Amino acid sequence: MSYPRRNVGALMRQLVDADPGNPDGRSAVRYLRWLVRRSWRSVYGAILMAVLWMLCQAVVPAVVGKAIDAATDRDRRGLLIWSLALLAAGLGQAFFGVVRHRLAVVNFLAAMFRTVQVTVRQAGRLGSALPRRLDTGEVVAIGTSDIRQIGSAIDITARGTGSLIAVVAVTVILLTTSVPLGLVVVLGVPLLMAIVGLLIRPLHRLQQASRDQQGLLTGRAADLVGGLRVLRGIGGESVMGERYRAESQRLRAAGVRTAQVESLLEAAQVLLPGIFLVLVTWLGARFALGGHITVGQLVSFYAYAAFLVTPLRQLTEAIDKLTRGHVSARRVVAMLSAETDLPDPAEPLPASRLTGELADPRSGVVVRPGEVTAIVAAVPAEAAAIADRLGRYAEGGTVGGLPLSSFPLATVRERILVGDNDARLFTGPLRSDLAPHDDGRLPSALHAAAATDIVEALPDGLESEVAERGRSFSGGQQQRLRLVRALVADPDTLVLVEPTSAVDAHTEARIADRLVRERSGRTTVICTSSPLVLNRTDRVLYVEEGRVVATGTHRGLLETEPGYARTVLREDAA
Fold first, then answer.
1. Cα gap 347→65, rounded to integer Å
2. What is the pLDDT of residues 515-535, one digit of tens each?
């Protein structure tokens, strides 16, 4: 399975014609068709195998009836021929069934993981805009339940098509044998499908409501887990627990309403084909008693009546799974159609022009190439906002006098890396987390971030497994490991936001010395108020009320700028 290299935005322009965030049913159908086209060989192969598989089953009752008639007439040659035909049908059924199942599993997994691929790619394209566009619960629900429903929808197309062809074949066989019985099938099957169809629309609506409530509750659970320590600290655990319990009950009620309709659909899948079976059997018996059909044909009718239960149930199952897949596909399309608030320019400038001084005109910050520049703000949030603009996580930054928004976002991300304390450590081997494409910089980065002792203390060193979100490491250890990852990336411009706020003074001094040496000759911006770090930078910019009010060295600003001294030395204004 090839990874979809095309830009997700271009893909969705081909697939989606609805408003962003509000896709219609046609968009979901287009997405499912796109999945089919991406795996058309295995999908059409599975359909072909399913048709042949069901046809082999469909001809068995007719062959058995012919064999019984041959035995009744003492026709040995005919009995041998029909027995061999029955053997061939059985072997064909076994072969086609195995191949169909294998292809069906391939289609199921391909639809699932291709959906995972495009949604992960879209998450990367949205980047920092993802939390503002989608709830956490929506993303989690897509990756857990929706992908299975979409996979099942693609999988059922083969068996559904095979069942439909089998019903048509049985109808033709019965019509050639007995017109009344054939008409019962011709008229009965559409009637059964129409009755089942009456349940599909309310089921569709209830599944959509239940799915929305599930996404909301999943997001609430993620928020609770992430902020449980804070909630306990302020005594809000019981309040949030009650809210979660109330929303959980609403989800339960929505699930019960959905299950009620689903139970009716399941009952219809058993009851309606059962009634159809009784009707065909009763009519066949009357025709046999009246001499209109032979004993072998009577056996065939009984067998067909029993056989039709399977394709009819598979047809109703296909309707059910296609409905579920349609609901899930709409959620996926809603994510894929979400637009970032940091779009690429219509006519991007070449990467070669992304050179010169990096600046934030709004604050007056100017970063000279090749220097280690520090930004100190009286309000730390102002320094973080400047870092966002310098890294184009917000609009307003320039490079060489050109807006950063004039360049493709991927180019900006490649050249300018912003490392802050919101970055997460990922589950898996520590080596792949710190240096997924290690080119030899990892040892020096570990040394520069004073993180060598962290690795040495682990039982398997760099091959040790990182727990979820790095919770097995302390806050200071996580901060140092994040710094390692940023140094391994070795960008042209590195912007660090409070990189040493969680470590002790001795470790902070070591990191400050080594960091400056590690980034020697390359552009580095450090947003910090730590004197140990500031004393080792080339230039310091002091920001008040969002504007640069003083520039100089750390020691020079301590002597000439009282506001800077108060901020850095943590003194009260009095």
1. 73
2. 999 998 899 999 999 999 999
